[in-house]
Amino acid sequence: MRGIVYDGTEPAVRTDVEVRDPGPTDVAVRIVNAGVCHSDLSVLDGSIPFPTPLVMGHEGAGVVEAVGSEVSKLKVGDHVVLSTLKYCGQCSACNTGFPTRCRRSFGVMSQPFTVGGEPAYNFAATSVFTDVTVVDQVQAVKVSKDIPLQSACLIGCGVITGAGAVLNTADVTHGQTVAVFGVGGIGLNVIQAAKLCDASRIIAVDTLASKKDLALEFGATDFVDASDGGSVEQIQQLVKGGVDWSFECVGHPAVVGDAVKALDWGGNCVIIGVPAATAKVEIPITHLTHIDRGVRGCRYGGARPHHDIPLLVQLYLDGKLKLDELVSKTYPMESFSDVVEDMHAGRLARGVLTY
Ligand SMILES: NC(=O)c1ccc[n+]([C@@H]2O[C@H](COP(=O)([O-])OP(=O)(O)OC[C@H]3O[C@@H](n4cnc5c(N)ncnc54)[C@H](O)[C@@H]3O)[C@@H](O)[C@H]2O)c1
Ligand SMILES: [Zn+2]
Ligand SMILES: [Zn+2]
After folding, report:
1. Span 237-293, pLDDT tens digits
2. Residue list, CB under 5 A from ion ligand 2
């Protein structure tokens, strides 16, 4: 079967990829669509270090093709969105509603694939840039067949991360003000979730002016062009004193600094973007202590996948969450390099592979 394989030099479509049969608690999923997230590019540029060879991709949806002997909640033919979170379900974090804090869900690596007969890793415990993947049953969440898989696949990372950061991690309430740094797949979902929370001002910030129309379409009230710097001053002109919430959706230490500076007294910054593993940020401590500001990180939107994914699907079916509009363009697996080029040029909300 096919798969986009990264061998440490270049990503390439290989036709000699095989995946193992599902174990007792696994499911095999035939992938129908997969979104390309910035984290996939971070593997290629080394910002997210990962052993190779690996089969790429982590934002996907498809149809269950086979189930393990102990799987009872999924059957062949079910439509599923895949989650990267292989949590244990037994630890204290899992049982208090925080599977993103499950120690056993972090750094999960295995080699369910072979490429040309040699073992190959899955990426983010998932791997969806391939015809068929095998994941643990907790990672496959059944969804209604009313949602097109082309839109549903984006829930697997971009939507659950961006919307979850607002709905689960932060506590944005009616009338509050929000700044969103980075209007990519993640940032757009922060914007639309902030709108769902009835934020009064949602200021989108990007270095590409071409992102303005998308930001406004998803619910931003204002757009700040950060290409010449000065985003903090522009935000403070729009909202005197600064914003209640800022979300960093870029993955750059300097942007984190700006996202903190843009806060009002008492405001909170949520960091979603993932910079290089060694990146550090320098924030004057008094800019936090003396004015009650907070900064926190957010993994995978604080998601509880079996609760949040059906909820996000329902919001979509009720017309409250834009997913079709996130799919800027579809590509065959063989055109992966075109998606990467279009992402770098800022032409996409999300590029989606279709198999
Ligand atoms: N925490 C998590 O669990 C999690 C999950 C998924 C993705 N991520 C990370 O979130 C980040 C965003 O991912 P994405 O898929 O939305 O990326 P993307 O490439 O789709 O979008 C990034 C956006 O940031 C903009 N940008 C770049 N530099 C900027 C700057 N200095 N100021 C303002 N905007 C700037 C780009 O123009 C682009 O619009 C990445 O770092 C990704 O690895 C984190
Ligand atoms: Zn992702
Ligand atoms: Zn656990």
Report:
1. 999 999 999 999 999 999 999 999 999 999 999 999 999 989 999 999 999 999 999
2. 37, 39, 157
Question: What are the structure tokens assigned to 249, written together?
Answer: 């959706």
- Which class for 323: exposed (0-12), middle (13-18), buried (19 or more C-beta within 10 A)? buried
| CA–centroid distance, residue 252 to ligand 1 (Å) | 9
Hey, what are 247's tokens?
A: 């979300």
What is the secondary structure of 319-349 as a DSSP string? T-S--GGGEEEEE-GGGHHHHHHHHHTT--S
Model confidence pLDDT, tens digit, residues 293-321: 999 999 999 999 999 999 999 999 999 99
Identify the residue whose tokens are 């607002």.
166
Q: What is the CA radius of gyration of the chain?
A: 20
106 Cβ contact list (under 8 Å, min separation 6): none
| Amino acid in position 67 | V
pTM for the full predicted model? 0.97
Pairing of strands 263-271, 243-248: parallel
Q: Is the CB of 308 under 6 A from ligand 1?
A: no
Domains, the chain, in order of start with CATH, read 3-159+302-354 (3.90.180.10), 160-299 (3.40.50.720)
Closest to 17 measured CA to CA, from 120, 109, 108 = 120
Ligand 1 atom having least distance to the Cα of 300: 3
Of the ligands numbered here, which is closest to the C-alpha atom of 350?
1
pLDDT at 219 (0 to 100): 98
